[in-house]
Amino acid sequence: MIKTPMYFNVTYVKINICESCSNEFNDGAQCYVCKKYYDFGCAGITKRGFRNLGADRRAQWKCLQCKKVSFSPSPSRPSSEATPGGNSGGESATLDVILKEIREMKNLVTTVPSLIEDIKSIKVELIHLKESCEYNSSLVKSFHDQVSSLERGVSQIEKI
Ligand SMILES: [Zn+2]
Ligand SMILES: [Zn+2]
Fold it and tell me: Compositionally biased, Low complexity: which spans (predicted)?
């Protein structure tokens, strides 16, 4: 009788067959487009590189074949968008509008700090203006005092 439990193989060793070279392997990459398995030799990526992609990008990894398919047919994309009555055109138009609005908002946000600086400098100028006004009014007051004391002097002279 075999003493090794049967589930050991099933649970812990995942054997896949490489789509490209038909080698059996237990650690490779699966393409999320065609769902085919590749060993790292045929996947066009190193084991370490694949690990470094992170869970999200690993889950969206494309094999070399699917990469070719998604990159090459750039001329077919505008033609599919140009089909009359297609929803894709409308969606991309609204997306453009949204992007444009986001850019405008971004521009507004970047002008806010300079606006705040402007307001600060205006405030400082107002304070200076107020100070000079107070100074002027005190000048006027002292001038007025001088004039009235002069008037008193003149009227006293007139009495003589
Ligand atoms: Zn292979
Ligand atoms: Zn693929």
Answer: 70-80
